[in-house]
Each structure stands twice: as C-alpha cells, then as structure tokens.
Amino acid sequence: MEKKIEKYVELAVKIGINLQQGQILVINSPVETADFTRKIVEAAYKNGAKEVIVHWNDEICGKYKYLYGAEELFENYPQWQVESVMEYMRKGAAFLSVYASDPELLKDVEQNKIAKYQRARSRALKEHYERIMNNYNQWCVVSVPTDAWAGKIFPELTKEESKGKLWNLIFSIVRADKENPIEEWKKHLNSLKENMNYLNKKKFKKLIYKNSLGTNLEIGLPEGHIWTAGGETSKEGVYFVANMPTEEIFTLPKKDEVNGIVYSSKPFSYGGNLIENFSLTFKDGKVVDFSAKKGKETLEQLLKSDEGSSYLGEVALVPYDSPISNSNTIFYNTLFDENASCHLALGQAYPICLENGSEMDESQLREKGINISMVHEDFMVGTSDLEVIGIDHLGNETLIMKNGNFVFTEK
C-alpha cells in the first residue's frame, strides 16, 4: 500500500497541482489525514516548493461549534482566516484540498446555523472563489479515506477493512495502482480532450435530457459557451488538473433557459447532511418546485442561499461506463460521485466556460446570461438509460449520449 500512496502523492503534486519551482503550496487538510498530508508536504518541498503551508481542520470540533457555540459566531467569518488564504493567493500560491468528510456529520445540527455560516463564509471568501473559478491560481482536490467516510460506504466491514477497501478503490480510480500512473494520466487527459473538442465544434444551442426516472429537461447554452475537460491552464500558463479523479466534460448553461424536471440519481452531501431521491422543476431557469425523500429541509436551505442558488451554473457529461461508475459504489463524496455520473450544479457558473468570460466582471457575465451565486453545488443525474440530445442553431438534432454513454459518430 505504501508504494501506491507514494504514487498517489506524486500524481497530486506533479499532475494535479503541477507545482512549479519556487512556488508556494497551501494545503487544506483534515487532521485525520495528517499522515497523507505530511507526505504531500515532503514531496512538495522535494519538487521545489518555496514554502508549504498547511491549514488543518477538525470536523468534530466544527460540529461542537455548531452544537454549543454562541449564535453570533455564525453571522461572520473571521477576517484572519480570510487573510490567511488571500495573502498566499495574491503571491501566486497553488492550493491543494484534501476532501474527506463525514457525509452526515451535521445531521443533528440546526440547519439555520449551517446556512448562516456558509453564507458568511462565502461572502468573506468571495475574492478567493472568484480567483479559483477563473483559474488565477492552480488548484486541486483529492480524497483519502477517513474512518467515518469509509464506514458510511462499507458499514458491514470493520474500521480497518472499510478503510483498506476504500484505499484500494481510490488507487484504482486515480490510476495509482498502475506501473506508470503519470503516463496513464496523460493518456486519459488526451482522451477527454478529444471528446471536448468534438462538443466545442458542434456549438449546440441547447441540450435535452431524458431517462426512466422521469427526467425531461431542456437546457439552453449561451452563445460562445466552451466545453472544458481534464486539465486547465492558470493565468500564469501552468497546466493543472483541478479534480483527481476527473471524468467529466463540462460547460455552463444560459441562466434563464432551463425548463422541465430532473431527478437525482445519487445522494449528495451538503452542509454535513445527505439529500436523497430528490427532484427539481425548472421554469425559465429557476427552480419553482422541488421534492426530496430525505434532506428536504437541507435542499430548501441550499436553494435559498442567494438569488442565484436556485439556477443552474454547470452542465457536465460523464459516461456511465467509467472507472468510478463501474465500481458500483456510492461514495457520498461529490469529488467521486460527480465523476461517476452526468451532473448539474446549482449556483455559480465557471466564467472560463465562456469565450473571454474570465475577463468579464459580474455585470458583463449577467448580460451574457451567466449565473452568479455564492454557492456551487453539484448533484448527480446520470443513469444507465440517460439520453442526451444536442440541438444546434438550425434545429438539427445530434444524439450525444444513449444508455448513459457517448455515441459520437464523428470526432
């Protein structure tokens, strides 16, 4: 296992972040993943990092704050924490997040407290999120097993068995079990790029989603939209991979041109709570009705986050026949589940998915029909029978996906 962990660390530093000589690296990490994070720190220095800063967090202590903290704690986000991020961001640092949380940690916490604090955090870190979504700095998200997360996925196993099984799944999915993972990633990124180029060539006006769950959704795409996939390029010209793993090809929708109903295909965790078996009904872009068998109050809080949180900000295509999906595992972790399934996102759109979008301010993006929000939350809609049709400006239809997989007739 140690050898595979070393390969995973190397992938995160050299392919994910693509750390440059003399660059600062900022790591956000749970205390429970300290061993893995220390390996990242060492590898970063060995690969030329000028400095490595680790921002540790403990979700259990965070839960205690919600349960016992004074009400005013949730109205504001500490300025020192903002500056601890922005100081390094303005210096051109790269940012690596180790995302491994208990998907139901906050199920006993008052939802209003969570919503208040998330809004305060989003407002305070607005510049940070804008820089990340416009690729001013390299950034990457990876995951490693924790007791709570592994136990949620494999409740029938012992603590050691569940973590060991999850480690092996992650190694396989991120290709750390291959003899030369870096070369495998280069091949994978090239494959994603081919499909991305095909979609960009088609210049669709809208997409139509249908499946047996009841999804029947039409999504308009703005003029000048760009599909992107795999790796991205920072403002300094550094190629990096924001998500490890990644299987998606994504773009942005036109804010007020989403109509119909969509049903979720997997649970997703938001604010430490699971939302399951839910549907969203859209009219002129906005969610006008919703349902959920579990987590309806949490979903409602998400939709009420701000004006843009009830509109879509991302459209992502992922083949059903992919390594993560083929594992037949629900990960309760957006990084993995979104790369196992076609998904959509409520909230902020990525300006990089619009021609010259990263050079536009908010008012210019709004004029182009691009959604602006403090949140960006992915939810999964892909199924084994999902059909996606693209329609161009002349009304011509092209079948993009059938039975959940791409059916490109040309490249």
UniProtKB/TrEMBL annotation:
<dbReference type="InterPro" id="IPR052170">
    <property type="entry name" value="M29_Exopeptidase"/>
</dbReference>
<keyword id="KW-0031">Aminopeptidase</keyword>
<keyword id="KW-0482">Metalloprotease</keyword>
<comment type="similarity">
    <text>Belongs to the peptidase M29 family.</text>
</comment>
<dbReference type="InterPro" id="IPR035097">
    <property type="entry name" value="M29_N-terminal"/>
</dbReference>
<dbReference type="GO" id="GO:0006508">
    <property type="term" value="P:proteolysis"/>
</dbReference>
<keyword id="KW-0479">Metal-binding</keyword>
<dbReference type="GO" id="GO:0004177">
    <property type="term" value="F:aminopeptidase activity"/>
</dbReference>
<protein>
    <recommendedName>
        <fullName>Aminopeptidase II</fullName>
    </recommendedName>
</protein>
<keyword id="KW-0378">Hydrolase</keyword>
<dbReference type="GO" id="GO:0046872">
    <property type="term" value="F:metal ion binding"/>
</dbReference>
<dbReference type="InterPro" id="IPR000787">
    <property type="entry name" value="Peptidase_M29"/>
</dbReference>
<keyword id="KW-0645">Protease</keyword>
<dbReference type="Pfam" id="PF02073">
    <property type="entry name" value="Peptidase_M29"/>
</dbReference>
<dbReference type="GO" id="GO:0008237">
    <property type="term" value="F:metallopeptidase activity"/>
</dbReference>
